[in-house]
Write a structure and sequence with these properties.
With 335 residues, the chain is α+β, with helices and mostly antiparallel strands. The protein is built from 14 helices and 16 strands.
Length: 335
């Protein structure tokens, strides 16, 4: 899993990744779930079900029982049990039931993270900091366990994209480095091993002038109690008792200000369009009442809630555009 490896971005820069290029012609273009973000996509990968079924519905979501916002990557409150929040069994757990060794090779800080406990539970966790160390750790697993399923995670491309953008020399340099690491990983695997290389989302670059603090527009947050979602997929939850007229007024205000740059729709409209797949009532309650989904190179922030450094992010994802939603599936089989 290469976090942030989108189909469009790889296709545009495939000359910087000779090993991945060798697999690209036979590769497939996959669509992620929605929102196109890490917590959601990794949960779908690990459980095999839609976002509406596993309930990991974005970067920030609403905890309806306590009327609060939960950051599903790094902001879980201590009183929220990840195993109770995401109850679907994982692919790792199912595979292990058949006597197959299952392992995750990833960064040490993720070993006991809430996201790991919620959606990636089941494998033996093998910690390694640097990309080449993760490649070596993957080899080690197969040396001791020939019949194994190993999930190896690389987050470097995503971090570089957020900081510098996908149309940057730094992003291309990181892609080149990961291409070398993946080639090294694959070249030392045992015979008859199948390697699947994919991403969790793509990314688009947002210029500084289009990183909008929407909290500065009172008419856009009138009656709004909670703000959640992604910078390119804002979700607004109205305070209890807010009447339909007031809600429509806010929706119309968003249309007037940003309707040419974003899709603005209610929660029910998003569900009716099938954005989340089948969804349970419990998980539906984690969504905002109103959604603002970026259609152009723009991102929206609640400046009252996010840190100032959030506005420095160049690469963004979370909406419905092809640059964000399409990822590659490349296959290599050792002989």
């Amino acid at each position: 899993m290469v976090d942030g490896l989108g189909w469009n971005q790889l296709k545009s820069h495939v000359g910087h990744a000779p090993f991945l290029r060798s697999l690209f012609a036979e590769g497939r273009k996959l669509g992620t779930g929605f929102p196109s973000t890490t917590a959601t996509s990794l949960s779908s990968l690990a459980t095999g079900v839609t976002p509406g079924e596993h309930g990991m519905l974005g970067y920030d979501v609403v905890d309806p029982a306590r009327r609060r916002v939960v950051n599903q990557l790094g902001g879980w409150p201590s009183d929220l049990n990840p195993e109770a929040w995401q109850t679907r069994p994982t692919v790792f757990e199912k595979v292990a039931e058949h006597g197959i060794h299952v392992a995750t090779v990833s960064i040490p800080m993720f070993a006991k993270s809430a996201l790991t406990r919620a959606s990636l539970r089941g494998p033996k966790f093998v910690a390694a900091n640097q990309p080449l160390a993760r490649a070596r750790a993957t080899h080690t697993v197969f040396e001791s366990q020939r019949n194994a399923l190993v999930y190896t995670y690389f987050n470097e491309l995503d971090k570089t994209g957020h900081k510098f953008g996908v149309d940057s020399s730094q992003w291309r340099d990181t892609l080149e480095e990961l291409d070398y690491v993946i080639k090294s990983l694959v070249s030392r695997l045992p015979e008859e091993t199948t390697v699947l290389i994919t991403g969790d989302h793509g990314m688009v670059d947002v210029p500084e002038s289009q990183r909008i603090d929407y909290s500065r527009y009172p008419e856009l947050v009138d009656g709004v109690e909670l703000t959640s979602g992604e910078p390119r997929g804002v979700q607004l939850t109205f305070a209890p008792g807010t009447d339909e007229t007031s809600r429509l007024k806010v929706k119309h205000a968003w249309h007037k200000e940003f309707g040419s740059k974003a899709w603005i729709l209610t929660r029910q409209e998003a569900i009716d369009r099938g954005y989340f797949g089948p969804i349970t009532p419990e998980h539906e309650a984690r969504l905002g009442d109103l959604m603002i989904l970026a259609a152009e190179s723009i991102a929206f922030y609640d400046g009252r809630r996010v840190a100032p450094m959030a506005f420095e992010m160049v690469g963004q994802h979370g909406s419905l555009t092809s640059g964000e939603r399409y990822v590659p599936l490349l296959v290599h089989r050792t002989k």
